[in-house]
Amino acid sequence: MPEVKCVFCEIAAGKAPGHIVQEDDLFLTLLDINPLSEGHCLVIPKRHVHWWHDLTRKVTDSLFRMAQEVAGKIM
């Protein structure tokens, strides 16, 4: 079975384009290519996970902290 490439992993590795808004050791925040509203962003982990609830509590806290910071800047 061929390996399926993850577009988010490609962006995190710098192999695919993405408009990065903010970055830290664990996550990237980037503009959505099909935004539902102006400033619509995605916060993605730099390591591949199938489900966000597979992240540890500490990492999940970091994800939501980044989402809150970026939302504050957008607003």
Structural class: alpha+beta
If classified by CATH, what would the architecture be? 2-Layer Sandwich
Q: Give helix % range.
A: 25-40%
Main sheet: which strands, in order across?
Answer: 1-2-3
Number of strands: 3
**CATH class category label:** Alpha Beta
What does this structure look like?
- By secondary structure, the protein is α+β, with helices and mostly antiparallel strands.
- It has one domain: HIT family, subunit A.
- 32% of the residues lie in helices and 19% in strands.
- It contains 2 helices and 3 strands, in the order αβββα.
- The chain has helices spanning 7-12, 57-74, and strands at residues 20-23, 27-31, 41-45.
- A 3-stranded antiparallel sheet has the order 1-2-3.
- Strand 1 and strand 2 form a beta hairpin.
- It starts with 6 loop residues before the first helix and ends with a helix.
Summarize the structure.
This protein is an alpha+beta fold. Helix content is 32%, strand content 19%.
